[in-house]
Amino acid sequence: MEAARDTLEHRLPPSAPHVVLVDDNTGDIALIRYAFEINDMVVRISVAEDGLHAQELLTHLTSIQDWPCFISLDLNMPRANGFWALEFIRRHHACTTMPVIMLTTSNNPPDRRRAMELGATDFVLKPATFEELVLIVGGWRSYLTM
User: Taking the complete model, does pTM exceed 0.85, yes or no?
Assistant: First the structure.
């Protein structure tokens, strides 16, 4: 199924909205992809498994002028966490105003406060059910036209 999805995404026109997902959990990535489909949101998705890979990916996307509409960013990842990635994103000239949604398992108020201070657009707790995730992803529709 993953190969079929990748083939489909490669057939999407370059004008399709582009989203970057930064998360080390491949299961969460698969669920988010499926939630976009359930919401009838046709998007190109690029994935980075941690903050360092996100830095490489965003640098590459900037070099080819393929800016995402928004970034969904996990907090707890190996090598470089979401705070590190968010700091890079906000320093990177092409990304200073790009919406960044922290999608995380952390419900720690200091984590939320720090993320917002670093420039996160929103801080969303990863839901307990797929139905809740579908609602969250559906709420991201407004970011696709930015």
Answer: yes
Tokens representing residue 77 in the block = 């990842």
Q: What are phi and psi of 56, to 5 degrees?
A: -60, -45
102-122 b/e with 16+ CB inside 10 Å = b?
A: bbbebeeeebbebbeebbbbb
The answer as to whether 110 is a domain residue is: yes
**Tell me, what CATH number does 74's domain have?**
3.40.50.2300
For 19-50, the pLDDT digits (tens) are 999 999 999 999 999 999 999 999 999 999 99
pLDDT at 146 over 70: no
Kindly state whether residue 9 falls inside one of the protein's structural domains: no
Per the structure, the complete domain to which residue 122 belongs is given by 20-140
Assigned domain for 88 exists = yes
Alpha-carbon separation of residue 34 from 37, 58, 67, 83 (angstroms):
5, 23, 22, 26
- Rounded distance between C-alpha atoms, residue 74 and residue 78, angstroms: 11
Number of domains present in the structure of the chain: 1
Residue with tokens 């992809």: 33
